[in-house]
Each structure stands twice: as structure tokens, then as C-alpha cells.
Amino acid sequence: MEKEWIEVLEKVEAETKKINEHGSDFIFFRGHSDSSWTLLPSLYRTVFTTAKIEQILYYDFVFHSTIIFQKQLSSWEVLFEMRHSGIPTRLLDWTENFSVALYFALKGDKPNPCVWMLDPYKLNKQSFSSATIFNTLTDLEFDYFNGFIAESVAPNKTPIAILPITQSVRVFAQKSVFTLHGTKRGAVEELFPDCVTKIEIPAEAIPAAKSFLNLSGVNEFSLFPDTDGLGRYLVEKHCK
To answer: Which residues contact 39 (CB under 8 A, 6 or more apart)?
Structure first.
């Protein structure tokens, strides 16, 4: 079992070295408990019965959340808060920490998990002609509302790598980063296959991988540092 896990780590290290040699010092990771899942955001994975669902969700969220935030949020802040609340959006969650991605890959206890690795600089160079990771507040010529809700300006067509604009406790704990998917539907691995690599985790490697996470202190409470996360962590630790 240790042999298979070491082979997984060697593949991650080799891909990291390859990306670094191409001039990228930042890697995005995403864990999938089922390796057949594609790199699509929830907005494009969910079946809706109503047209213009993104606009409906946006306006309803803004209307009902006013009492919660008690201030006017920018449209980008609204988008991130919607994602944080579990609403389908065009954001796809990634992390800059391999261990965090590994934890989410193993969380489903399925026999075929994987971790995706993305070169964000290469993606943005191909998708948006700029080899940088975008801050939505300063680096883009459109905002979320004008680009995707009012549709008054042209936004990105294909996925781009972006940084979070709010440092919530959960975002900080999970070292969260994102891809913002545009008007052209399609998974990252389909649109930009040379920007991503899938690292399969064999079933034989899973026990050693879980031991690695335990030694690394990666668990429900470290990733969800609130009472909900603490509760799940204690149940997992003492009741299973």
C-alpha cells in the first residue's frame, strides 16, 4: 500500500516540476472522489427548468441577503457569497494546497478518487491572453453584474484562473482559489487539455493517503473552522 502511495506522490512531484519549469510558481489543485467527474462549475452541472436562472438566483440572493450583510456588496462579492452558500455559480473551487485537494478526493470513500493539477498561468495565457492570475476587482475590464447578469459588456468566454476577493475563515483555511467559467460551456480538460493533469489515486494507496492526511493535521475542523466542522471532526474521530 505504501508503494502505491509513494508512486502517487512521485507523479505529483514530477508534474509540479514540469509546471515550475514552464515558469509557473503557483499550482491549482482540485480533488474529486470520482475520477470520471469533469471540471465543470455547478451552474453548468445542474439541470434547471427555468431560463435565465443565473440572473434569477443573483437578484433573489441580493434581495434576501440584505439583512444579513447590512451593506451593499459588489457584484463580485455577491458571486463569492453565493458560492459560499452552496448556490450554483460559474465558479469552480480549487486550492493551492495539495493536501486539501487530497482530503476532498478521499472524503467520498469511493474506490476511484483523483486529484487534478492546473497551471493557472498557462490557462490564462491561452484563455485570456495574459499569463497572470486575475484579481477580479483590479485586473478585469468587466464586473460580474455587467458581464453575466445584465450582459451589457463582453466577459470571458472560456475559463480563467482567479483569486478570491474575500478572505473568509473557510477560504483561508482551505487556501481557496477558483476558475471563473465564461459564456462557452465546456470542462477545463476539454477546452484546455494541456493545462491540466489528472492524478489517479489507486484504491490500494488510499489507506496510506489517509494516514498522510492524519499526520498532516488535515481534517473537517482544520478545513471548516467553525462549530459545524468541529462537530463533524469529533464524530469522525470518536464515533466511527
So the answer is: 30, 92, 116, 179, 187, 188, 189, 196
State residue 1's pLDDT score: 61
150 vs 109, higher pLDDT:
150
Selection from 38, 61, 37, 54 nearest residue 89 by Cα: 54
Question: What is the grid cell recorded at 212?
Answer: 498522510
Share of the chain above pLDDT 90, in %: 78
**Nine cell digits for residue 129:** 491572453
pLDDT tens string 163-175: 998 767 888 899 9
Question: Under a CB-based contact definition with an 8 Å cutoff, are residues 192 and 126 in contact?
Answer: yes
Residue 203 DSSP class:
G
Buried b / exposed e over 6-44, threshold 16 CB at 10 Å, is: eebeebbeebeeebeeeebeebbbbbbbebeeebbbebe
